[in-house]
Amino acid sequence: MSSFTGVVAHLIVGRKPEQYLGAVLESIAEVCDHAVINDNSGVASSENAAIVLASRLARSGRLTLVRSSFIDFATARNACLDATPPGYANAWGLFVDADEVHGEELAAMAGLLPHLPDDVDAVDGYCRFFVGSFSWWTELLRSRCFVRLSPALRWSGRIHERLAPVGRRVALPAQWWQYGHVVLPREEAEKSRLYASLGPGRAPTAAQLAFATPESVWAHLLRRAHRFDGAHPAAMTSVIARLSRERTEIFEAVDALAALRTRMDRICNLFHLANASRLLGWRSIQASLCWNWPDDDRYRAGRIGRALPERAVFRA
Predict the structure, then answer these.
(1) What confidence tens digit (pLDDT) does each residue in 149-203 have?
(2) 51: helix, coil or strand?
(3) Per the domain annotation, does 110 fall within a domain?
(4) Close Cβ partners of 105 (under 8 Å, ≥ 6 residues apart)
(5) Residues 111, 24, 148, 314, CA torsion sign
(6) For the chain, what is the domain count?
(7) Are residues 61 and 163 in the same domain?
(8) CA 270 from centre of chain
(9) Phi, psi of 117 (to 5 degrees)
(10) Both 163 and 257 in a single domain?
(11) Predicted local distance difference test score (pLDDT) of residue 5
């Protein structure tokens, strides 16, 4: 086993207000020894920065806040790597987006990290993508979660960026929730415009932005949607309650669009759902056989050897 110095989270935020940022930060606060956040809004103060500075990570002195202008996603993420305090050179990086909220399984994942062989560079999990509302999801995808930090690590790609070099990766059946498509219709269209400016894709017109509706931005995605009857992370409780009140009409429109799925859509979705269940079942067996995860008492405790809290650091 190599020297282990805990977990440092890396996260980027821009100028657009992030509805889920507070929940994201709260959901990782118990697991992280430190967090490096790049506010690339290019402004002296922002709504997102205020949320960051009010977070439990900031209040406990476990935060480095970097301010920059946005160039592309890889550059923004590399700024987090560069600003990681030297004391965390042998830490595991937790890569999280401003719309990804974790549940209790994150702590069990972190509990496994000190006991992994040296040749394991990354631990993945599965991200569930919601669309339109908190009741419908479309994808359960294997996604990066923890990566062993090293000076050689760099991000590349303006959009859909990639991290390298990363050697052996293992996957656990742990899940978290992604709410990037549970936004206002206009925000969905604006996101499409940003992505089109950085890579292939068609940017919405000004008229499409101005008159965006649930149907115009989500109808194609909701054809392959599954109803979600499970529990959302505890950190999302107040957010879901508030947005459910504020967006009643939008959520009703999303339900109506999902009801338009054809018989063939529903059949295809059943196969997709069965495959997702099969995959998680196989990962559960694999994790139990290889690591006795999550039943080992060391993982169930859900805490790692945390370094002493440090004073928060703010950089221009």
Answers:
(1) 999 999 999 888 999 999 999 999 999 999 999 999 999 999 888 777 777 777 7
(2) helix
(3) yes
(4) 125, 172, 174, 175, 176, 294
(5) negative
(6) 2
(7) yes
(8) 26
(9) -65, 155
(10) no
(11) 74
Write out pLDDT tens, residues 194-248: 777 777 777 788 888 889 999 999 999 999 999 999 999 999 999 999 999 999 9
189 and 255 together in one domain: yes
β-pairing verdict for 168-181 and 100-102: antiparallel
Look at residue 253 and tell me if it is in a domain: yes
Whether residues 63 and 104 fall in one domain: yes
Both tokens assigned to 249: 């009409």
Q: Which domain holds residue 259?
A: 185-267
Distance of CA 171 to the CA centre of its chain: 16
Q: Is residue 213 exposed (0-12), middle (13-18) or buried (19+ Cβ within 10 Å)?
A: middle
List Cβ neighbours of 5 (8 Å cut-off, separation of 6 or more). 33, 87, 88, 89, 90, 91, 307
Q: Would you say 95 and 10 are in contact if contact means Cβ atoms under 8 Å apart? A: yes
253 and 168 housed in the same domain: no
User: Domain with 28 in it: what CATH number?
Assistant: 3.90.550.10
Token readout for 81 is 């790597």
pLDDT (tens digit per residue) in 91-110: 999 999 999 999 999 999 99
